Amino acid sequence: MDMSKISLKNVTLQYTDNNTAYTAIKDVSFHVGEGEFISIIGPSGCGKSTLLSLFAGLNFPTDGNILIDGKEVTGTGTDRGVVFQHYSLFPWMTAKKNMVFGIKQVLKDKSRKEIDAIADEYLELVGLKDFKDKYPSQLSGGMQQRVAIARALAMNPGVLLMDEPFGAIDAKNRVVLQELLLKLWEGGSQKKTVIFITHDIDEAILLSDRIIVMTAGPGTVKKEIKVPFKRPRDRSSLVRSAEYSELRNKLISLFYDDLLQKIGGEEVVL
Amino acid sequence: MKRWLGITNVLFILVTITALLPSAKNSSQSEYTIGLLLFIELIYIAVLLFEKNKEKVETHGDVTAIIYVILFLWELFTAKLNLLDVHLYPAPGEIVKLFLLEIPEMIKGFISSIQLLAGGYILALVTAIPLALFIGWRKRLYKVVKPLTKVLGPIPPIVYIPYAIAILPTFKAASVFVIFIGAFWPIFINTLNGVFNIDRRLIDSAKALNVKERSMLLEVILPGTLPAIFSGATIGLVLSFILLTAAEMIGATSGIGWYVKYFSDFADYSKVIVGIIFIGIVVTGITFFLERIEHYLLRWRK
Predict the structure, then answer these.
(1) pLDDT value at position A269?
(2) Is B118 on the interface with A (CB under 8 A)?
(3) Based on CB atoms within 10 Å of each CB, which residue in A150, B141, B202, B238 is the most buried?
(4) Prediction ipTM score
(5) Is the pTM of this model over 0.90?
(6) Choices 3.40.50.720, 1.10.1370.40, 1.10.3720.10, 3.40.50.300: CATH for B100-301
(7) Which own/partner pairs from A242-245 qualify as long-range (CB within 8 Å, at least 24 positions apart)?
(8) Are A90 and B211 in contact (CB < 8 Å)?
(9) In the β-sheet with A63-68, what is the strand arrangement from edge to edge?
(10) Are B210 and A78 within 8 A, CB to CB?
(11) Does B201 lie at the interface with A, CB-CB under 8 angstroms?
(12) CA dist B279 to A62, B105, B240, B249, B253, Å?
């Protein structure tokens, strides 16, 4: 009996475009344990975002299967919360309305007042209580992602799927958001299982229990690496440690290996 | 001090002096021209005094200046120099006086017209928007309907008028029908394209929240399509107005389009001009009203 929260078995995704078949993801298998924080890193085109859409149930594998809590994914569901890089929030709803809209999809029977209270609570948790009546266009990119995270958490899913959520945020605010995410994740009464897509190696090390490195053309898992650091992690002391550098270098070489090979193997016109 | 001596106020003085000069004929009613000038100037002064936004003051001043130039030339060539045919080109004062006298008559016409317009236009809104939302959302339906819109959409709705009058029992029903057709296509096509062009990522985001279809259509697709709906609604409104006046000129016995047509049959061009100005005011008013609604409903945009 498979006890993992999420398991992928030989997942392959093909699609045809102009009568040509493409393989976006090929034969990907791995497991994610309950409450585990997993990062998936890889170059663009390695299918990492496509993989996330499979977890979310927005897309389906052509071969193999994905099980969550032992059940095959057949569509979207409120057992999974998703935060995208862009457009997680609806631009015509205020921060608060965005929260309420999400929460009421889960808590259908709760009164308007109770839903309001939950929305306020989570907005306060991400420090945006005073911005609840602002529209997304009036918020900075970082604030928008905070609302998106707050909404995903307020819906209280078992699994949190994050598709490069901080990819468009400037370096300084990214650090703030990473810390906030860790705090919320570690502080939760029951730790959520997180799948976090990123191309930022430091981000992956700092946040995850395990890192899955993917490679492109077609997208496959190149390596799974355990992150050995204890939690809570202190960023500044961590980045100075030798173990950190070692892990980082290893990831960098994995990350850029095939990229360099590719450049070496082909004629590159610059 | 400087702002009071801008080009606009200099023109005001120039055109007022021109109006005060003796006219070539007695019927020119230059005192009404002066009345109009004072009215425009009072608005301008109010803007100068109370509007804080410099750019807005400037634009208002420029527009006012252009109106003064037109009034100056108009007054000069008609009332003062009498160079133009008095019958075809009445002096501005005559038009102002006649306009004031004709207000009750034109309001009657307006009430008659607005019923036809509102009937056809609102009917178009309440059918085109839900239909387009639903069809746009169903990919298979969309693919069937899209080519249909390409054939039916571009037919100038004016060609339906004679047929509509023939097949429908009353002129009123025929007008409402033609206005409906005219407004329907731009609203329908714009909404349809709006649904189709809505950002996939927003749809995915809504799907990821496990939103049910009803909620998807009403709370995601509809507001997401609203900018496109408004551009369709604006085009639809303009077309409705054209069709309204056209229909009234063909077969009505009341209304603002009828008013213009009726008096041009009698060669009473002063009333024709008054009617045209009144139509201009009405169209501006209605478009302004629609713009306010759009501004409010799309306040979430940057």
Answers:
(1) 45
(2) no
(3) A150
(4) 0.89
(5) no
(6) 1.10.3720.10
(7) A244/A205
(8) no
(9) A20-32, A6-17, A63-68, A71-72
(10) yes
(11) yes
(12) 62, 13, 13, 13, 17
